[in-house]
Amino acid sequence: MPVQLYFFTSIAFSLVAWGVVTARYLWPRLRHLSREAALRPLLVLHSFRFIGLAFLVPGVVSPDLPPAFAYPAASGDMMAATLALLALATLRSRAGILLVWIFNLWGTFDLLNAFRHGASVGMVPGELGAAFFIPTFLVPLMLITHGLVFRILLQREVESATAEPLAVR
Question: pTM above 0.85?
Answer without folding.
Answer: yes
